[in-house]
Automatic annotation (TrEMBL):
Keyword Cytoplasm: yes
Cell compartments where the protein resides: Cytoplasm
CDD domains with a match to the protein in the record: RRF (cd00520)
Name assigned to this protein: Ribosome-recycling factor
Keywords: Cytoplasm, Protein biosynthesis
Pfam families hit by this protein: RRF
Organism of origin: Thermosipho ferrireducens
Amino acid sequence: MKPVFIKQTEEKMKKSVNAIEEELKRLRTGRPSPAVLEEIKIDYYGVPTPVNQVATISVTEDRALVIKPWERNILNNIEKAIQASDLGLNPINDGNVIRLIFPTPTTEQREKWVKKSKEIVEQGKIAIRNIRRDVLKELKEMKKNGEMSEDDEKRYEKEVQSLTDKYIKELDSLFEKKEKEIMEF
């Protein structure tokens, strides 16, 4: 049976990977995705509210997102929020819906997005290595205090290292997938 701290270590590493995965989903690629709007909030009756909670967002075949607010009076708020964001897209407001057209990105833009993806994944790797460092420090402390034998310490160190390797590999896989998504036409 795994000790509690090994389970906790795995849970922390999983959370780190999931957080990086979510951040990568929000990263803009050449393809339209409603996920790019998740961080954009509008003032909705005095409450900052994500666009996806006040409108229906759909993807069209012509590389565009169509945002149809549930209340027409917030159309301008959505348009202003998108313009103020760092998406680099110009919303087209026709009075009923907002269209966000995703132009085919240049090679330079794609390379920039790949670089940003790599930075995000690297942050995840650092978080996982920090978790490993903290647990190994805890193991040494337990051995020093006589709460654990040297054999147990070595065995748990190996388990923690294998968890670290597993989640680092998972992050590498996420990066490869994102890179492929960004670079495909």
